[in-house]
Amino acid sequence: MQQRQVSVVVMATCDYAPSGPMGDPAQLDQHVQQQVLRAIRDVIGRKMANRELTFRHLGTGDVAAVTPEILAVSGLEQNGIRVSSLAMSFGIDGHPPQPPRPAQGAPPAAQQHNLAQGTFDMGGGHQLRVKINGKTPENYLKDKASGMVFGWILGAIIVGAMVLTVVGFGIYIFVVAKSGNAPKAAAAAKWDGKSEFECAGNDAVVLTGVTAKAGVKASGNCQLTMSSVSITAPVAIEAGGNAKVTMTGGSISSSTNSVVASANAKVDLVGTKVTGKAKTSGGAKVTGAP
Question: Nearest to residue 178, comparing CAs of 198, 155, 150, 201?
Fold first, then answer.
């Protein structure tokens, strides 16, 4: 059976509200993004593998039935973060996704969407308005540093047969920067976990589902994202320069330090089981590690 890789990009937006003190808005935004991205990947991937969803469902946006499951899998409700109005739109095989909108009914011919103002024409004289912390997406981006994101755009690689048999589901992450430049895709990388993985310069890399006996090293302006990665090493993550490392799920078991961060590096561990203390110097910051 001949197989090929089919590129699928999904644009997703949602509203969320914490039930308690919000804390650092940037960290809360990042946590919500990571958990929802993980849930979309896991649920859509599983449904495709079980043939409960097909490329036709993704292409037509007919995925409303799995939205409650995605929100449940994200675990945000259990942590006191109420998520609502999750909308997803998929672009398949190189076609860009349209702005997310509800899947019910056929859209009118003259819909008007304004992503900057956070308004989406739903037809029948109704509009969906999206605000972040009470601001329009455009104003929110102006108030934040260049790495802050309105909503998120993520890409995924779905490995499928010509008969739409899905055998794998990967993930890319795109970030919309303040400058308004085109989103840059984080490249999925291969790592056997036997030797140290290094990310340097302006690399933007994603590692998924690796069990490693060696650590990772990030330097320069590297942006390294890890999902469901388990690392057993004396030092699991070493980050320096302006590197940014985000790890979601997985585990770290270190005999010396779980994380060693220096200069202006930033390391965020979200839902990761960590053994070993973090060590920082300079202006480096580490969250999620003892």
Answer: 150
